[in-house]
User: Fold these one by one.
Assistant:
Number 1:
Amino acid sequence: MRVAIGNDHVAYEMKLEVAEYVRSLGHEVVDLGHHGDARTDYPTYGRAVGEAVASGAVDRGIAICGTGVGISIAANKVAGVRAVCCSEPYSAQLSREHNDTNVLCFGARVVGIELAKMIVRCWLDGQFEGGRHADRVAMLTAMDAC
């Protein structure tokens, strides 16, 4: 799987560790994030990850800022993106199974690296169940046209 990863300055160090972890799971990482700790703006990177996912350039995306909230809002502004902000693995897994999320967001100031790895693993391993959930995801997709 090709996974885009983006981050602001707050999440630079975590991005490096998460990217390495994703590679260790056998996935290709496309780094669209900020490189360093000089102040930058999270919407730029949430949008970049969202656009990479929506265009099909990558299969999924991971976006990290201080809390995960701002960067998830930015990613969700891109039509075709279903970004989720998670601070624990269960929601990450269910977001894949029930909502077919394609961008995972979390906060470097909210979760530690080991918890981040657990969240990433559950989300990457999660498979969309379809069925009754497909109608709901179709409703979400239709909202992109509004």
Number 2:
Amino acid sequence: MTTPESDPGESGTIDSEPAQARDSDFVQSLDRGLAVIRAFGPDRERLSLSEVARATGLTRAAARRFLLTLVKLGYVRSDGREFSLRPRVLELGYAYLSGLAMPEIAAPHLEELVAKLRESSSISVLDGHQIVYVARVPTKRIMTVAISVGTRFPAFATSMGRVLLAAMSTEELDKYLSDANLEPLTANTVTDPAKLKEAVREVALQGYAIVDQELEEGLRAIAAPIRGSDGGVTAAINVSAHASRVSMEAMRTDLLPALLDTARQIESDLKSQGA
């Protein structure tokens, strides 16, 4: 008979790593609980127990415990067969966003840029291997995936991601390219580490990045860095447009000057507020 402490379902998977080799400050159950929340997404709004277990690598027993705990805490709802997130999960990100000066400072500048160019504009930061949108002003929807604050995309395949990667040291970039999942998202996605490294170097030299239909077919985007008061790159700002309407040359001649000017205005406001 197994006890709760010895039940493999409690830890989720059979762990062969010696106990003394583990990080004593790492709470594995918290890590797995957060993994259950991250299993849900724009294209995975409703998941069965089996789907959650498969997405997280947990056993069904462990996934069930975490899901039912999240149900009791008000973060997840269940209809008896499938699970979905509840609005309360927004609390988990609100503490970060509420302490982030960038969206509030940038919002009027984004609105002015979008009104001028009639193209969508966003700001994102780097989080691990992905970019996370922290501010956005859309125009006509041009992507099949709806974008909002909190949306994530692989950094290597996005203009803002390339700008943020360009701010890394050589060692940091090498580690990113070694660890990240460089899967193609379209026929145009650059996935070769050497080519990506060269593209990022070019971004660092020219001060902006253009990505042509690498994230989604028909979508072009141009991005520039936003620097904080210490001079370091803290975020990236982009403008996205449909490839059938805006040529690569027009991205540089028509969109880039306004984008760079907006980035400078945001930087000036950040500096004045010590952000």
